[in-house]
Structure formats: C-alpha cells, structure tokens
Amino acid sequence: MNFNYKVIDQAGREVSGQIDAVSSDSAISSLQRRGFIVVSVIADTQKNILQKSFSFFDKVPMKDVVVMSRQLSALFEAQVSALKAFTLLAANTQNKMLSYALTAITQDIQGGISISAAMEKQPNAFSHFYIAMVRSGEESGKLTETFRYLADYLEREFELESKTKNALIYPAFVIVTFIVVIVLMMTAVIPKLSAILIETGQQLPIYTRVVIAISDFFVNYGIFMLIIVIALGAYFTYLAGTDSGKHRIDGWKINLPLVGGLYRKLYLSRMADNMNTMLSAGIPVLRALEITGEVVDNRVYKQILDDAVADVRGGQTISNSLEKHEPIPAIMVAMVRVGEETGSLGQILATLARFYKREVDNAVDTLIGLIEPVLIVGLGVGVGFLLTAILIPIYNIAGAL
Asked: Do 40 and 62 sit in the same domain of this protein?
C-alpha cells in the first residue's frame, strides 16, 4: 500500500514523497530508520498513475530484464550500492513498466526490505526463478555473480524461445493466408464463374464439379462453419483457462507431428539450464526442482518435476524419479544418474542444456528447411487445381465458339 509522507531530513528541510509499506506504522518505522523526523503519513487511496497505465500489460519483456541484469552486475562489480544502482536503472530504463518496478524496489530498499523481497512484489517483471536466484545471492554474498548468471541464462533462454517462435510464425502465417484466399475464392470468385459454366450447358469435368460443389457448400453453409469455428475457439479458450485443460493442451504440444519433438527438446533444455543455474548459485536441489517446475512453462513437465520433488523427499534419486516418465529421454536419465554418482550434477546439467540447445537449433533449421518446400508445393498444387478446374472449361467454351 502506498503512503504519502512529509518528513524533516537531517539538514532541517521538509521533504515529501511516497512510500510503499504494509501499514502506516511500517511506513513510519521505515522513514525513521532513514534518519527522518516524520511529520505526517497518510494512506494514498488512489492508484499510482504508472500502475494504472500499465495494469493491462502482462509482463516486462525478457530482453529488457536481460539488459537490466547485465547492468546490475556491472554496477555491483563497480562497488555501487544497491540503492544507488536501482535508482540509476529506474531513471535510465526505457521500458516504463520496468522503470516503475525498479522505482518501487528502490523505495522498498530504502525502507529496509531486501532486494529479493522487493522484487517478489513485482511479479510482472521478475519470475520465481529470478527471485530465488537473487535470494541465494544475498545469502551467499555473491550478488554480482548471481546477476551475471541471470543475464547469461536469460540471454540463452531468450535466444532459444525467439528462434523457436520465429520458426513457427512463418508457416502459420502462410497457412492462414492460404486458407483466407481459398475461402474468398470459394465464396466470391468461383460462384460467378460457375454460373457462367453451368449456363453453357456443357458437360463439366469431374474436378470442376467438385470445386463447384465445395463452393456451393461454402456459400450456403459458410455461416454455420463460421459458428462452429467460433464455438471451437471459445471452447479451447475455456479449456486453456482450466488446470486440466492446460495439462491436456501441453500434452498435445509435445506430441504434435513435426513440432512435437521441437517442443520436447525446448522444455528439456529449459529444465537442464534452470537446474544448472540454480545449483551453481547454491540453491538446494529440492528448491531448484520446485522452481524449475514453476518456470518450465509446460504442465506435463511440471508434473514430472513435482513428482521428482516428492520422490527425492522420500529418499529416491532424481534419476530414478525421472526414469518413470516417458517424456524424459533415457540419455537424460543416464547422464543425471552419472552426475549424482560422481557429485558433478551441475556440470552434467550444463552439458545437457548445451546438448538440447543444439538439438533445438538443428530441429528448427530442419523444420524450416522442410516446411518451406512443402508449403510452396502445397500452395502450387492448390492454386493449380483451382485454375485447372475453372480455366479448362472456359477454354473449351472459347474453342467451341
């Protein structure tokens, strides 16, 4: 909650401002710890303007958090205090939502709150994984290294996600465009040409009659098809909002033809990289498994990691737990087992992360190389079939005149 305050500083000047605290007593205590004489503290009943402006945005883009993490690491390495570092970043960050979050963190740090606790109050900017890493850095006194780890990890994650999404955007765009063009031709172009062909009374080829029948279906029943499509979209939207629906959709994603393997490798790379980064920062294995489950972004793999947490608490090894689940490949189980037996789990996970990142890169390149010619051939065959079905009868009419 925000409080507007008036205080007298050590130089005897009256200063006013705003502080975020859980209660007025907490706000007063925070101000007094800074050496201020408190004149008044009044709860602010109106929302912060920036908070209003950006309340509809989901999250701060990952690339902005990457840049911020790199800058924080450099500032801490230069022996700049945390308060000064966050103040500088808040003033110089172009992303307004991130700037607001950093400003709020600065105020919390001034009030005596730890960096990780202050970041925890900004879920739109910082994930559970990020906060756990920062908390570990505070406890071990290695904040500089922690922010460097975070920047490196987030850069890898951003690069991997961007490459995967870009690989799927192009074919999706082409397919949607093709469907729109076909629908427009079937509802606007083919009916006019088919009317001319039917009026001639000539015997039409079978493929022409098929195209005309499909066109008639679109014209006469297109509205019902649109209603069905909208209903299916609404159903899947509802399904995506439920836990069971999300689990089912995530299961479909990793079992889809062509792209299912790509998604699997993406999630396995994310799991290994998350675990390695957290173990390198000194986070306990159980907590690392829990946080990885929260940030892996797939309910199937989250359930696997949740089961691993329960199994490890019951005395089993991570490899034995992972071995029970089909989405985890045997090579990953074997390497994790080696890491557990030799005490080098972090290094093994780093190797797995690099391996699966290369696998994702190769899968994306293969997918792009495969999809482009398939789309080109498919589009050519579709357009050629339509043109043949319509133009050949027209040429026959012209030849008969």
From this structure: no
Taking the C-alpha atoms of residue 196 and residue 311, their distance in angstroms, rounded to an integer, is 72
Over its length of 401 residues, how does the chain's per-residue pLDDT go in tens digits?
A: 567 778 887 777 777 777 766 566 667 777 777 777 877 777 765 444 444 444 434 578 888 888 888 888 888 888 888 889 888 988 888 888 888 889 888 888 888 888 988 888 888 888 877 888 888 788 777 788 888 888 888 887 788 777 777 777 877 888 888 888 888 888 888 888 777 777 777 777 888 888 888 888 888 888 888 899 899 989 888 887 787 888 888 888 888 887 788 889 888 988 898 888 888 877 888 888 988 888 788 889 999 999 999 999 999 999 999 999 999 999 999 999 999 999 888 889 989 988 988 888 888 778 777 777 888 888 888 878 887 887 777 777 766 65
Task: Identify the domain boundary among 155, 174, 193.
Answer: 155
Q: How far apart are CA 337 and CA 347, in angstroms?
A: 12
Structure-token pair, residue 200: 């001639």
Q: Are 60 and 50 in contact (CB under 8 A)?
A: no
State how far the Cα of 173 lies from the Cα of 181, in Å rounded to an integer. Answer: 12
Nearest partner of 273 among 250, 296, 302, judged by Cα:
296
Domains of the chain: total: 3
Query: Can you give the CATH number for the domain in which 194 is found?
Result: 1.20.81.30
Question: What secondary structure, in 3-state letters, does 72-96 show?
Answer: HHHHHHCCCCHHHHHHHHHHHCCCH
Amino acid (one-letter) located at 372: E
- B/e letters for 176-189, b = 16+ CB within 10 Å, e = fewer, are eeeeeebeebbeee
Q: Are residues 360 and 263 in the same domain?
A: yes
φ, ψ of residue 312 to 5 degrees: the values are -65, -40
pTM of the entire predicted model: 0.64
**Domain extent for 12:** 2-46
Burial group, residue 30, by CB count within 10 angstroms (0-12, 13-18, 19+):
buried
Residue 353 CA to residue 367 CA, distance in Å, equals: 21
Do 391 and 262 reside in the same domain of the chain?
A: yes
CA atoms within 13 A of residue 130's CA, in its CB half-sphere = 23
Cα 187 to Cα 190, 368, 381, 383: the distances in Å are 7, 32, 20, 15
